[in-house]
Amino acid sequence: MSTKRKTVAVHAGAQLTGSKSQPVVPPIHVSAVSFFDNSDELDAALDGKDYVYSRIAAPNAALLEEAVAALEGAEACVAYASGMAALRAVFDVLNLKQGDVVVMPADGYGVTRSLFKNLAARTGARVEALILSDASAPERIVALRPKLVLAESVTNPLLRVPDIRALSRACREVGAALAVDATFPSPYGQRACELGADYSIQSTTKWLNGHSDALGGTVSGSREKMAALRAARLLGGDVLGPFEAWLTLRGVRTLPVRMKAHCEHALHVAKRLSESPLVARVHYPGLPEHPDHAVARQVLEGGFGGMVAFDIKGAGRPDCFRFLEKVKLARAAPSLGDVCTLVMHAASASARRMTPEERQAAGIGESLIRVSVGLEDPDDIADDLLAAVAEAMQR
């Protein structure tokens, strides 16, 4: 089959291995347990060679894993019940111990940082937060000699873009595992494993699903690394349910078409916002003035993503809350990747689990609004955002 993303998205994960049946739309397999007339076949199924118990393996999750692995350009994929479960699985499988160092983005998703700080405290590992888009980041990684580096392809919520290839070279030099949360660009915008990541992580709740109706997460990488994750998942039980897997695979089918439009709309909205005197700064890697624009052009494909962030000039938290109440087309919701435009106040949502000091060090101020740009007419989106800013800042 073709490896081109549009073709892969439509056809990968369509047929279960060993079956000659070829349904156009995969059925939903809701049975948690199956039986066999032949004891040898049952015995083999308990080793994962067939479907017998959905904690070991399940048909709908297997089809999704096949599709995501193909989109990621990876050898294999493991699906989880949420993106956070996927992130935790990567941390746990590395068996970190007292004194080990974990590097993660200082300006990344606050819940991930909180999770890793808690997990590290239990193991005795130490978390070091760096701005991984800084040119000095690879050198800092070499000096720290970590066991794990977690990067975000595009950081949440400031949309900084690290050079994954440079981070990968630094990780290889010191024997560190490189995990990349590539949720923001999706596999349409970046294949992190092809840039040198050991693990590419997706919150499938977002762009892959695309309709805000199913939680999920995936980790993609080599067969060897995914086998270790799969073995751990069997014991941990954080499996993806059949309905969630089916809905997400349905979303995957239109991923390239949707992402192309999301990227085009986001660029248009970013340009419109940058022209407003009420907007202090627009964060979008597709704008030439973005500090990582040159890197983004090299490590992102098919566009610069569907996320935009902007600072309302002179706004504090109450002003931003009024903005959330004034939008009419967009919806104030703490997620992203939907066909409709979603907005949120970054400091009280994505960075909510960060301390004020951590937010300040990251550059996440009280005036920052994050936008997941939808598929509505882009001028309608921009008009709605700008009108809401104007109303919110009326004194």
TrEMBL record:
- From which source organism is this entry? Archangium minus
* Keyword entries, A-Z: Aminotransferase, Pyridoxal phosphate, Transferase
Name under which the protein is recorded: Aminotransferase class I/II-fold pyridoxal phosphate-dependent enzyme
Q: Which PROSITE patterns match?
A: CYS_MET_METAB_PP (PS00868)
**Top-rank taxon:** Bacteria
Q: What is the lineage of its organism?
A: Bacteria, Pseudomonadati, Myxococcota, Myxococcia, Myxococcales
Give the cofactors, semicolon-separated. Answer: pyridoxal 5'-phosphate
What are the recorded GO MF terms, alphabetically?
Answer: transaminase activity
Is this entry keyworded Transferase?
yes
- InterPro entries cross-referenced by the UniProt entry: Cys/Met-Metab_PyrdxlP-dep_enz, Cys_met_metab_PP, PyrdxlP-dep_Trfase, PyrdxlP-dep_Trfase_major, PyrdxlP-dep_Trfase_small
Q: Which Pfam families match?
A: Cys_Met_Meta_PP (PF01053)
Q: Respond yes or no to whether keyword Transferase is given for this record.
A: yes
Q: Which residues cross the membrane?
A: none
